[in-house]
Amino acid sequence: MSVRTPRRLLDLAGMHLLREDDLASSALGQLPVELFPPLFKEAFSGRHTKILKAMVQAWPFVRLPLGGLIDLPHVGPLQAVLEALDVLLVQKVCSRRCKLRVLDLRDTGHNFWSMWSGASTHRCTGSGRAPVPKPRSVTKQHVAPLKVFIDLSLKKRTLDNFLTYLLRWVEQRKSSIHLCCKKLKIVSMPMDNIVKVLSMVQLDCIQEVQVSCTWNLSTLATFAPFLGHMSNLQRLRLFPIQVSAFKKQEHDHVVQITSQFLRLGHLRDLHLESPSFLEGHLDQMLRCLTTTLDNLSITNCQLTESDLTHLSQCPNICQLKSLELNGVTLTDFNPELLQVLLEKVAATLQELYLDQCGIKNSQFEAILPALSRCSQLRSFSLCGNLLSMAVMEKMLRQTAGFSCLSQEWYPAPQESYSPQGVLLDGRLPQLQAELLEILRDLGQPRTVWLTFSPCPHCGDDICTHMEPIIYSCSNSA
């Protein structure tokens, strides 16, 4: 039979303060630091706006991680917090008790609240209680701008009530508030509203941008100047950009867009989904890169041989860890271009994705020597290409010594299909057995996935429903 731990006097006092707003406001100057987080959390969830305002003005921590507590349909407690901040912002000097300099509206801080929720029973000092701070007094330290952190995900055509209220509040206090956003995701929103949001944000705080909606080139060009001011941007992901017949105006748009990369001095990850505007113009973007990239993804678009030549010669890709060219048609390309590219990144490359590139047997055999130098590979995919069993065996043998390689994705061998491209009944299990024999002969644990293209069941471009071919020491008999 368990015995409930009796509540401490401090816990009971905190509960009493929530019921007596007037008493709470006057008692906060003597409230132990350990009681602030659990009492604040209770006040926020219970919408005790009066005590919330008082607690914000006496908050004894630098950061208030509010995002994990916000219930968006009920913005009343948030409004109370912002109104309390208004009182702090108009003060010429800051109080010694209040140390609040960061309001964090991101969905973070759960560890902070959970840690302090047990403070009253588990985080006591040797005397059995937290030290009581000295009475509130004034220091001559001037108030610096308050930082408000938020992750922006612009999913709707109109701004929601929460964001509208916050932006209006920030706009009226621009000299004393820095609205900081590290992650910006744009799913669906008119450019006018996007501009309205970004005009309120400290753009040099943004580290990740993902544009998941389809824009035309002129829309991207409108967004480009904002992108150029994101001087600490580390990751950029752009989804399909629609381009009509290339004209002088669109050439100007490309220049406007690619020139912004000159200002992105911390860019490490670049993902471009269907960037058709770069066909024949990839060199314009590559020339503007100022950093060495870790990850590069250019997918589902047409590139020219000139584009691939410039890519293989670009000094900013020499330390790539991940290269993805899925859906870039390489059927008629000189394989030497891809060979030079792989040789350039061989020392550092960990992930290589060449799905649905139209690579033929002869081309793949030509790049095998360069591929065999990529000894750091962890993940490798050739799904959707048409390769023979003989070429696949060469690939497996060339990479047998790759100790880091853990994910291998290959197309079902060419021999699995009829001349009309129909999957032959019973043929694939035979080829799977042959591949397992090859793995057994190589004598190293290995897992290989085979894929169909297109999927005979659901019609997807690539089918990944098959069980992998697994060789381990235990099945070597």
Automatic annotation (TrEMBL):
SUPFAM superfamilies: RNI-like (SSF52047)
Oxidoreductase in keyword set: no
Keyword annotations: Leucine-rich repeat, Repeat
Family: Belongs to the PRAME family.
Protein name: PRAME family member 8-like
Species: Odocoileus virginianus
Gene label: LOC110142822
